[in-house]
């Protein structure tokens, strides 16, 4: 289907529920190109009533009129629930357009998901609005004898509003599900919030705005106009200059502190812009929340485009005169400033590149990446995350792991990285690339385009020195590398850092290797773990535990688990008959299908992993080849379960046998250490306490945060 046809049929889909009309809907296979260049524009868009847009509105109007006629003919009513203490007062201003007002009211009745009251100011409508108002139950209705305009009507309604928050909602808009709960939640989860706006979509399914920009000349831009609402740049929470009054939440307290909307901007236009600037002058924030969404007809209440443009021109002058000092802090109105100006903050912009959205249960260094992103999101930094290899996580899955205020460039992948860097040339102050293969690709695409990162502080986050893992793997596979080949492999990996200004290693041990090869600016950023030991004592625990992703045969986790099951666990069973071995994590590796023992229990992924940590007595980590620093051991110790590990992992941790852990070298030795730790309460308590102290010393949040601040802020 072509894009024009998709646009034409979109209103039918929007109206399906509210009109209760049986429509034959056609599916589309095309979406709007999300990468088109955004242009600056005024509050009123010159392209809003092009022929195609008019046709869509004509169809929408026709269906809405049909709905209104059916509403009256069947003598329907709309009942709004009464609340003694409404969370939100929804303020609506009506002037004619009863067919659109009905759709708005129906969407509120259907989709409002917090306690609310509806306050309607009728500005002396002369159509069937009066009849519509008679069909409403539990709505507060204020009737004016003349058309006072939007600004004065809102102020009038606010005097009667009882809600903790006020929602200014245009009567030509329809509320989407969860809009109220997601919008009001921002006031509770974020600090110093003065107002919240949402994602506003037009009738054709494209974007009207995702927050708005105020330029230094007082003109304004609805960020993302005509873009694809699902594009990454419109799907993260951020501080903005202002949000449209088509959907604007503020607190009752804030509205009255500011004495409402400035009636000098009556009847409309620039009133919400002015209101948001006054909020910011008081030290509060205006936040765009992409999950609070409406569909907006646009310009239904102004008498059309031309009248709106005249109002805008007049009020722009008034706004500029009122906020001279504020406008001096704003960006110049030129297209290359769009990406910068979409943030009200002028924080440094940081790009983080890794394989995928770092869901912690994947292991493989992703828990550490999650911690990096979460901590950066709390700092005065604008964070963009670019998943390079696995790019198709849903927004729900993404935000189950990452904070809402991180921009995640999903669905672009390796093919889109060069275009992304080109389009945002001059935007990023920092680019952090994680993992050797990603840095290799990054260098490759910039081979003859290094000017794209002129002035950018490029940081290589080694995550792990992969060459050392490969050397160990080859040795175990009876295909050892020569010493010369080992040196060449390590040198080749370290050479990838040549494009970087600094290197981040996960341990001082690996940092030293970089320094030995001439890399001077090396930082150490390990794991961030806060000790949270389970409360079960030694006598209340039994059995052994392994935690890790087991997806691929030949991976370090699968290799170590099979080695343990074949060579070590039978010896343990001889000394502890019936001993249970619990295995947690995805276990899709084909070789594991051969494991069939009643006392070897595969649990898969667990939502509540703390319970099994608190149940088992000994954690085992028999890894034979790996690099970096073992998060699984840190996590187990944090949970209060002491560990038996391979010599390799102990060396990576720089922990000592009989102090923070026990070390098993041969299969029999590993089994003996497991039995000792499982059966000796005194030894168990000593190792547990020492490992907890090591976690507090080496993995503190303060240390982790300070290193990130050194990299990006100091």
What does this structure look like?
- The protein has 714 residues and is an alpha/beta fold.
- It has 25 helices and 27 strands.
- It folds into 3 domains: 3-72 and 83-341, Spore Coat Polysaccharide Biosynthesis Protein SpsA, Chain A (Alpha-Beta Complex), CATH 3.90.550; 349-524, Rossmann fold (3-Layer(aba) Sandwich), CATH 3.40.50; 538-698, Rossmann fold, CATH 3.40.50.
- Strands 2, 3, 5, 6, 7, 8, 9, 12, 13 and 14 form a 10-stranded mixed β-sheet that branches. It has a 7-stranded parallel β-sheet with strand order 17-16-15-18-19-20-21, sandwiched between helices. Strands 24-23-22-25-26-27 form a 6-stranded parallel β-sheet, sandwiched between helices.
State the main characteristics.
Rossmann fold, 7-stranded parallel β-sheet, 714 residues, elongated, 25 helices, 3 domains, 10-stranded mixed β-sheet
Q: At the third CATH level, what is the topology name of the largest domain?
A: Spore Coat Polysaccharide Biosynthesis Protein SpsA, Chain A
Please indicate the count of domains. Answer: 3
Please give the radius of gyration in angstroms.
30 Å
Q: Tell me the fraction of residues in β-strands, as a range.
A: 15-25%
The biggest beta sheet is recorded as: 10 strands, mixed
Unreliable stretches covering 5 or more consecutive residues: 1-10, 16-41, 44-49
Q: How many beta-strand runs?
A: 27
CATH architecture of the largest domain: Alpha-Beta Complex
The CATH superfamily of the largest domain is Spore Coat Polysaccharide Biosynthesis Protein SpsA, Chain A
Q: DSSP helix count?
A: 25
Structural class determined from secondary elements: alpha/beta
Q: Give the overall average pLDDT.
A: 89
What global shape is seen?
Answer: elongated
**Can you give the helix content as a percent range?**
25-40%
- In CATH's first tier, which class of the largest domain applies? Alpha Beta
The N- to C-terminal Cα distance equals: 53 Å
